[in-house]
């Protein structure tokens, strides 16, 4: 059995990024992964521009009490005339700085009348001027390959006049639920059966990561059926997620079916709670992850172990989001040999101190009624069990780890 840190590394590196790329319009790039480095093709701004509404002047003309006749009014998109000595040109934000001007006087620092414009205070050379290329210079690296594209990145691409960009294709995931006790949502359910919680939950989690679910299947507790289904799914998708059958009970058959189908096991069991039975292997060169059947445990292992693997498949540069530190409002915890991950609420203020989280009352591996209110996990090392109050704990924020 691997430690959590060892398992996280094994999961993250058990597959290579997808190789296929496609070119996508800027408006549809959010959440996609840039396939290659992009360099700036032009200087931005392309010319010196005004950062304020005001007046383009020569500093030497702005002595105390001097009035400068207005030579021209320049709006953004208008070509300015060269500035004549002893004159001023009215500019608006984004307007090109006229040749000969060396400063912009903000309109609130100037007074205008029929005589022209006068400055309330002497300008400094270069003030309120956005210099050519100060945002990006032609040939500079604009965005590196592996960037998860968001609105700010798209703004940078648009500023270069680009309308599309090369991105890695979407990763396709197959979800396989297993177990005789799982009733499909269109089937009658008896007291000895449970609804399929893992299937819809995992589909939502996969989509939140910017991947797509290409198929969703269910099989009973039958090794041959699992064997055949695993081979079929591994042949057609980039990642297979199996929910249930991961433990070592008599009807936990996924590991055996994976091996009999020609696959290999890379990790079976992780010293963590919840999620100890989680297993990862390879079949047909594709990663196969078997998650615990209890939904809250499946949620935890997906967030902490599967998401780095998905980021790797997607070609992202960052596989492991930052892990913060918070203090947990819990007096104690029972000792455990491995790492324990507690679901917690939003980070907030407790007793006048910032950075505290309230540990959720429901921590059972099958408890999902309050799962939607959790903001993340705190990681409790065995040495801290029973002494959690005021101890800074690693915090895995769902906003970072599930996107």
UniProtKB/TrEMBL annotation:
Pathway: Cofactor biosynthesis; molybdopterin biosynthesis. This is Molybdopterin molybdenumtransferase. The lineage of its organism: Bacteria, Pseudomonadati, Pseudomonadota, Betaproteobacteria, Burkholderiales. Its cofactor is Mg(2+). Keywords: Magnesium, Metal-binding, Molybdenum, Molybdenum cofactor biosynthesis, Transferase. It catalyses: adenylyl-molybdopterin + molybdate = Mo-molybdopterin + AMP + H(+). It comes from the Bacteria. Transmembrane segments: none annotated. SMART domains: MoCF_biosynth. Its EC number is 2.10.1.1. Residues 174-312 form the MoaB/Mog domain. Catalyzes the insertion of molybdate into adenylated molybdopterin with the concomitant release of AMP. Belongs to the MoeA family.
């Amino acid at each position: 059995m691997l430690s959590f840190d060892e398992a996280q590394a094994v999961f993250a590196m058990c597959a290579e990024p997808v190789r296929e790329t496609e070119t996508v319009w800027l408006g549809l790039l959010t959440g996609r992964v840039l396939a290659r480095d992009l360099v700036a093709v032009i200087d931005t701004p392309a010319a010196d521009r005004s950062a304020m509404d005001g007046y383009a002047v020569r500093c030497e003309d702005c002595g105390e009490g001097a009035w400068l006749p207005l030579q021209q009014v320049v709006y953004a998109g208008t070509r300015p005339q060269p500035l004549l000595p002893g004159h001023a040109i009215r500019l608006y934000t984004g307007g090109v700085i006229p040749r000969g001007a060396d400063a912009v006087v903000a309109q609130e620092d100037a007074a205008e009348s029929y005589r022209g414009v006068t400055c309330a205070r002497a300008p400094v050379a270069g003030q309120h001027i956005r210099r050519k290329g100060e945002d990006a210079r032609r040939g500079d690296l604009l965005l590196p390959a592996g960037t998860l594209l968001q609105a700010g990145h798209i703004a940078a691409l648009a500023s270069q006049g680009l309308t599309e960009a090369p991105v890695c294709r979407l990763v396709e995931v197959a979800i396989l639920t297993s177990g005789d006790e799982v009733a499909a949502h269109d089937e009658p359910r008896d007291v000895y059966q449970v609804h399929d919680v893992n299937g819809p939950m995992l589909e939502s989690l996969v989509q939140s990561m910017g991947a797509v679910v290409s198929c969703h299947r269910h099989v009973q507790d039958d090794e041959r059926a699992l064997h055949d289904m695993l081979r079929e799914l591994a042949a057609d998708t980039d990642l297979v997620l199996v929910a249930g059958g991961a433990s070592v009970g008599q009807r936990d058959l996924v590991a055996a079916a994976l091996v009999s189908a020609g696959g290999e096991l890379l990790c079976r069991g992780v010293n963590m709670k919840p999620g100890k039975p989680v297993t990862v292997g390879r079949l047909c060169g594709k990663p196969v992850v078997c998650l615990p059947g209890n939904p809250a445990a499946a949620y935890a292992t997906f967030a902490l172990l599967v998401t780095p693997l998905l980021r790797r498949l997607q070609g992202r540069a960052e596989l492991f989001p930052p892990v913060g530190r918070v203090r947990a409002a819990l007096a104690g915890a029972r000792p455990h040999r491995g790492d324990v991950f507690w679901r917690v609420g939003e980070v907030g203020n407790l007793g006048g101190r910032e950075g505290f989280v309230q540990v959720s009352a429901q921590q059972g591996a099958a408890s999902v009624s309050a799962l939607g209110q959790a903001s993340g996990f705190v990681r409790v090392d065995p040495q801290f069990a029973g002494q959690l109050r005021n101890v800074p704990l690693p915090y895995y924020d769902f906003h970072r780890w599930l996107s």
